[in-house]
Amino acid sequence: MTEPSKTVQMALRVNRESVEATVPVRRNLVDFLRDDLGLTGSHVGCEHGVCGACTVVVDGAIMRGCLMLAVQADGCEIETIEGADQSGRLAALQAAFHRRNALQCGFCTPAMLLTAAALLEQNSKPSRDEIRDYLSGNFCRCTGYQEIVDAVAEVAGADT
After folding, report:
1. How many angstroms separate the CA atoms of 110 and 108, rounded?
2. What sign does the dihedral 19-59-135-128 (CA atoms) show?
3. What domains lie within the chain, and their CATH numbers?
4. Residue range 101-157, pLDDT digits in tens
5. Whole-number Cα distances in Å, 67 to 10, 30, 44, 56, 57
6. Strands of 61-64's sheet, edge to edge?
7. Confidence (pTM)
C-alpha cells in the first residue's frame, strides 16, 4: 500500500518577493522553482549535482537546486537567474557573454552567469586559471569554455 505524500508548509523569499507554499517533502528546489513558481531559467540537467545547470543562489551562496530539497529553503533568500537579471547585477557579464559569443545553445548560460557573478563578488580580479577553476562545476557542451573564460576575464579587467 502506498503511503500518502507528505507535504510541508514553508515561507521563503524568491527574487526579493515573499513566497508561502505547501510542498511535498521530497520535491527538490529546482523543481519547486520551475514547476510551482514558473521560474524556468534554472535548468534540470543531470539531477545529480554534476552539471551545474540547476544553479541558484541561496542566502548569498551558489547552490545546486537539484541537490537541495525545497523544504530546506524554508526561511531562506533565493535568487534565480530571473531575479539576478532584474536586479541588473549581471548586466556587465551578459554584455561580455554577448560580445565574446560565450553562449550557443544557452542551456548552461544562466548557471554560468550566476557562478561567474559569485566569483567576481569574491574576487574582483581573478586570474584565467581561477576563472576556469571556479566555473569547472558548470558543464558546457557547446562552447569549449574559452569564450566564457574570455567574457569573465573581460569583466574582471584581466588580460584577455
Report:
1. 6
2. positive
3. 7-84 (3.10.20.30), 88-156 (1.10.150.120)
4. 998 899 999 999 999 999 999 999 999 999 999 999 999 988 889 999 999 999 999
5. 18, 9, 11, 11, 13
6. 17-24, 7-14, 77-79, 55-58, 61-64
7. 0.92
